[in-house]
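Running this now, will post back.
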Amino acid sequence: MTGEAIRITRLAILGSISVLPLLILPTMVGALVDYAEFTESQAGWVAAVGFAGNALAAIAVGLRVRHLDPRRLTVVGLVVLALFDGLSILVLDIPTWLFLAFRALSGLGGAAAYAAVMASYAAMPNSERGYGVFVVFQFTLSALGLYVLPLALPVIGADGMYVGLAVAAVFALTQTRPVISRTPETADAAIEVHMLLRPAAILVMLGIGLFEAANNMHFTYAERLGIGFTLSHERTGEILGVATLLGIPAAFAVVWLGDRFGELKPILVSLTLSVFGLLILLNGSGTAVYSVAMCALSIAWAFGLPYFQAFEARLDPGGSVVVTGGFFTSIGAALGPALAAMIVAPNDYANVLVVAAAIYVTVACLMFAADRFKNGE
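Update: finished.
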């Protein structure tokens, strides 16, 4: 491997660990329901507050990205992440409100490290390939977690799960060297504001935020959907693991294709496949339908996300748009589980699936408009 390839790979490892709670979200939700006596709605809110912490960090960093040293930011973020993941092992012994606060602060720390990784990729030529490798690692780690955790949870419980997250964050501290280290600029912060207020930037950030909202709406209850399809916990975990693994070649396709077809066409392919997956979940039953739907949704997510991020990076290689896009991504990731928690009915997920499909259609409209503005700027 070349030096650049090694750097891209280590950044991908670091960034994947910083968003690990998102990558294993369905199993985390199931663990809280099955091993910590949370209701399905409460477990959804736990996911939402974690993503709210992500959002707060992303907007703060995005507005000051040229005025920060990303490597120092990474170290601080990972220390916060490790601390509050460690404190979360008290889930069975503390009030729910305090546990929610720990998860929000954990999300804030993880998002700070994630923002530094995104800024490092934005500064590279052919950023879509860097983001593609990043997604490969995210889906690999997600597949591993979704397969292994259901097998381990009867032994380790929900508190043991948070021990594992804390250990992963400590390991990530050894991977910070590839993050860009630069002298903070002293220029007026209006530079970032100007970049962020362009119509194309606003539209694409809204688009990626809603994309993540829809993704996380159905992903939050993906494990519960499997149980609703009369599958066992172990069988559901196997299918989710396989589906996530299929996202890996989808992300590799981004590395291979690069910007050959621009950003809009691949994004529209991703959105179409997502709607297809939701529709067959709504109108089908059985193991085969669940498996095909989960695979389609996983492939669509893995293939589409790098192109959203590359669209942002192309608007501003300095990183303001792609990092602030992390705010919209995190807000979407928080709103998705929160909205799903509000509309889900006991053992009935049809409302969640219908609303998620409508959001995907809205995203397509936003990205058409963003592409028009980008070409006209």
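The mean pLDDT is 83. More later if anyone needs it.
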